[in-house]
Design goal:
Helix content: over 70%
Oligomer: single chain
Strand content: under 5%
Distance between the termini: 34 Å
Structural class: mainly alpha
Strand order of the largest sheet: 1-2
Radius of gyration: 24 Å
Length: 329
């Protein structure tokens, strides 16, 4: 007959599966709140040294919710302000381009790509408008979850540890450390680098005489979350656009100036100062986790994909260490 702990563990697993089925639409919000809370715990503890638990948790929740609101509001405002310009820009792109290669004209037909781009732009505008009420509800759920988890995070940790046999506590600790370091890399390192990119890109795109310099700077900051390539995608897209209009000087200028200051400089200035706290996840593995998570789970996969990849890497490391220990003994 199974022990009481095993029976309770099975019961909790079954109830968690049932909850995941019933609450499927807010699973992303729950996951987001859990990962954010794990990083907010040090801030909460510092506040809790000076304040009672409830005010400390409330202050921490207000801080993170305000930051999230400001970020979402800024992105929404700039996208709404520039939506018409973006659609007009897509419409102005000619359906074919002609290049001369070895004295022979080469015609490139992009009409199908343009039609798809117009459809995507329209769908994004409609989806963004219809998603606002649901987003407000999910943000409310997120705030309540963060507050509750901060108040009871010690109880949650003790419950999880109690359900795991003692010989595996070191494995649990190693996986928790790897998860915390990975989340730090995603949230803190990427966000700090994105903010630095935004602040650098604003004067750069303004100096390069782009009317939508604020939108371009915001796009560069957001693209810092895209592993490996980052804002280089934006710089290359701008250079390609100038080439299609025959403006070679502007294409070279944006490649050199924006490529150096926007795509390269933030990684050199910010990343090395914060990287020592991260999990040192290889770029290739992070890229696979990011892409796979995004395609499989949608936006929440941006966090879940690299996290799962990092935990897999840590599991392989623990297994290799265990096998080496067995050979030595």
């Amino acid at each position: 007959m199974p022990s009481r702990r095993v029976a309770l563990t099975v019961l909790v697993a079954a109830l968690a599966t049932l909850a995941a089925t019933v609450l499927f639409d807010v699973l992303g919000t729950v996951f987001f709140a859990l990962t954010v809370t794990s990083l907010l715990a040090p801030l909460y503890r510092r506040l809790n040294d000076r304040l009672p638990p409830w005010p400390a948790a409330a202050a921490t929740t207000v801080v993170v919710t305000t930051v999230l609101l400001v970020a979402l509001a800024s992105i929404t405002f700039l996208l709404a302000r520039r939506a018409d310009d973006l659609i007009r820009l897509i419409r102005e792109i000619p359906p074919t381009f002609t290049f001369v290669v070895l004295d022979a004209p080469v015609v490139v037909d992009v009409s199908t790509l343009l039609a798809a781009a117009r459809g995507v732009a329209g769908a994004i505008a409609v989806d963004a408008a219809t998603a606002l009420p649901a987003l407000a509800l999910k943000l409310t759920v997120f705030a309540f979850l963060v507050f509750a988890l901060l108040i009871h995070h010690h109880d949650v940790e003790r419950a999880v540890i109690a359900a795991i046999p003692e010989p595996y506590h070191d494995v649990t600790s190693a996986l928790a450390d790897r998860a915390r370091a990975t989340l730090y890399a995603i949230y803190v390192l990427q966000a700090a680098t994105g903010l630095g990119t935004l602040l650098i890109a604003l004067p750069v795109f303004f100096a390069l005489d782009y009317s939508a310099y604020a939108t371009l700077a915001l796009a560069a900051g957001v693209l810092q979350f895209l592993p490996v390539v980052g804002p280089s995608v934006l710089v290359l897209a701008l250079a390609a656009f100038h080439l299609t209009t025959g403006d070679v000087t502007s294409a070279v200028l944006v490649l050199v100036v924006a490529g150096t200051l926007v795509a390269w400089l933030p990684d050199v200035l910010i990343r090395p100062r914060l990287a020592r706290e991260t999990a040192n996840l290889p770029g290739s593995l992070y890229f696979v986790g990011f892409t796979g998570g995004l395609l499989t789970l949608g936006p929440v996969g941006i966090i879940a994909g690299p996290l799962v990849a990092a935990l897999l890497a840590e599991g392989v490391r623990l297994l290799a260490a265990e096998q080496n220990r067995d050979r030595v003994s």
